[in-house]
């Protein structure tokens, strides 16, 4: 539902005021509502990056589908990777409600003009990585995305509700996989600890640069697109994960990590922000491979898109003929 029905649409000189009041009342902006250009651009930027992340995010775990150690693990992983594709599609649809063109967004991704999350540029050399991605990466995604269910833009917020339900299941399957491995052999426990050591810092970087180096946060928070700052969400993730690590029996690789009674939060070390910037700029361990695979899949799927377009055109022509008869 739009917040402005045509009958009650404000006059042109009051559009900005009406938009500001809608945001201040914590109501939703809907596709047919007037919105400032900057708000639309920010949403397209964030939603497109988010959609690209879900789609590129299928690759690191997808590499394990053929090598999962049992039929059960294979079926779980298949379903999870398929869910990520679905998330990408909801998000591209949300971007389309803002006037973006999905084909154009894909072009921008594969020629490097649009970003996707840094976290998906790290390799997955062991099956424990599948568990740690579920635990850390989906856990971080939940911290970041649950507040986005209250984002001011209706289609984005509604897409996030369903996505978050699925991410919670993904996180639990990762943790359950790790629990099973921790009950296994010494070699399996070592695999889990090694994966934890490699994914911890990149997972903290997923939340973005620190608040004082985050150029978009203030504006996005004023528009209630983002509800919390990057540092607030990072802290929430650390506080949530520390007791889970203790229960699992792994050590988080940060000597500065400790409970701070006064703050009521854990203190933790500083991620390597230079590394984050390098990975965002395309110089991470797997950036080139991820984009090359995405490009190859896009090109290999051209005939499917062409066939679907031709089919839709035929259906439309048949519909017209039927209506004329
Ligand atoms: N990686 O000013 P800020 C998932 C960019 S989905 C790459 O702080 P903002 C599911 C940022 O875009 C994971 N780039 O920006 C899954 C901006 O560049 P721009 C994705 C990053 O937007 C699980 C510049 O740096 N989640 O995990 C990163 O206010 C398992 C300055 O930064 C979302 O997209 C980064 N880590 O805050 C799938 C959630 N951080 O555009 C498969 C929605 C920052 O100005 C398996 N997005 N940048 O050129 C958000 O909440 C926000 O966009 C942030 C960044 C928090 C990511």
Rg, Cα atoms, Å: 22 Å
* H/E topology pattern: HHHHHHHHHHEEHHH
The largest β sheet comes out as: 2 strands, antiparallel
User: In whole angstroms, how far apart are the ends?
Assistant: 36 Å
What bound compounds does this protein have? Phenylacetyl coenzyme A
Number of helices: 13
Structural class: mainly alpha
Fraction of residues in β-strands: under 5%
Number of strand elements: 2
Mean pLDDT, all residues: 96
If strands are numbered along the chain, what order do they take across the biggest sheet? 1-2
Give the low-confidence spans: none
Helical fraction equals 55-70%
Quaternary: single chain
Shape: globular
List the helices and strands and how they pair.
Elements: H1 15-24, H2 37-56, H3 58-62, H4 71-96, H5 102-110, H6 128-145, H7 154-182, H8 186-205, H9 217-222, H10 230-248, E1 258-260, E2 265-267, H11 273-280, H12 287-300, H13 302-324
Antiparallel strand pairs: 1-2
Helix pairs in contact: 2-4, 4-7, 6-7, 6-8, 6-10
Bound molecules: Phenylacetyl coenzyme A (FAQ).
The site of Phenylacetyl coenzyme A has 29 residues, from helix 2, helix 6 and helix 9.
Comma- or semicolon-separated keywords:
mainly alpha, 325 residues, 2 strands
